[in-house]
Design goal:
The protein has 123 residues and is mainly alpha-helical. Helices cover 65% and strands 3% of the residues.
């Protein structure tokens, strides 16, 4: 089972991926530029493999916990995006015309902060 602390760590790594690679829209990652959308960044941060810019599940990812980290990080970011922006899906939020790289990075880090506060409060 993945902990909230591990999910927070994955979201922080994903924010780092967006900063490093650039913010992409419309694809998990852009094969030409290397830019990643929010979900693509979570994919890289969780260790899930991809092919041709799309998510590819594999037995090794399930066994390693990468798929669970990916799914849980997406679920938690989705909750934060909905709470903060009133938008129900990460792709809809990420791909808005006026969505900036900094907004994506900040939202991922703020969501990680919330998870860590929840973890501390539960202790």
């Amino acid at each position: 089972m993945i902990t909230k602390a591990q999910i927070a760590q994955t979201l922080r790594r994903a924010a780092d991926e967006v900063e490093l690679r650039g913010h992409g829209k419309g694809r998990y990652f852009d094969l030409r530029t290397g830019a990643v959308c929010a979900i693509g960044a979570i994919q890289f941060a969780s260790g899930v493999r991809a092919k041709n810019g799309h998510y590819v599940d594999a037995a090794t990812e399930i066994a390693s916990g990468a798929s669970e980290r990916y799914l849980e990080a997406c679920r938690e970011l989705g909750k934060c995006v909905h709470a903060d922006y009133g938008i129900y899906t990460i792709p809809s939020w990420n791909d808005e015309d006026d969505r900036t790289q900094q907004q994506v990075v900040d939202e991922m880090r703020e969501c990680a902060d919330r998870l860590e506060v929840d973890t501390e409060a539960a202790s």
